[in-house]
């Protein structure tokens, strides 16, 4: 059930033209690897892939930097900045509550 929910979320928000079978297959293979060999190899693979993916992301950001137009970011809102800060405070409060709930007390 969680596979389908996650795949639907990825399809609706990030990859709307991708087939859902790609997400389901990828998550199933990752789960099979974790069940067969344990979670440690999956974590090690993440430790190895993270710097590579971070490097690719930074490279893409640097190469696209000359094409960025800051005027496309404005105006953020026709209102003042205060309503934006109030809205972001609510989201921040929810995330902070989750950190407080799941942190160890001891």
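^ Assign residues to that structure.
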């Amino acid at each position: 059930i969680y596979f389908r929910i996650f795949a639907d979320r990825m399809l609706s928000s990030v990859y709307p033209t991708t087939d859902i079978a790609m997400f389901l297959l990828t998550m199933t293979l990752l789960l099979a690897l974790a069940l067969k060999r344990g979670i440690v190899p999956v974590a090690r693979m993440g430790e190895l892939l993270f710097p590579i993916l971070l490097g690719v992301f930074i490279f893409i950001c640097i190469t696209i930097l000359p094409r960025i137009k800051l005027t496309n970011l404005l105006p953020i809102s026709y209102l003042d900045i205060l309503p934006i800060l109030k809205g972001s405070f609510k989201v921040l409060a929810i995330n902070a509550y989750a950190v407080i709930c799941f942190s160890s007390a001891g």
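The two ends are 34 Å apart (CA to CA).
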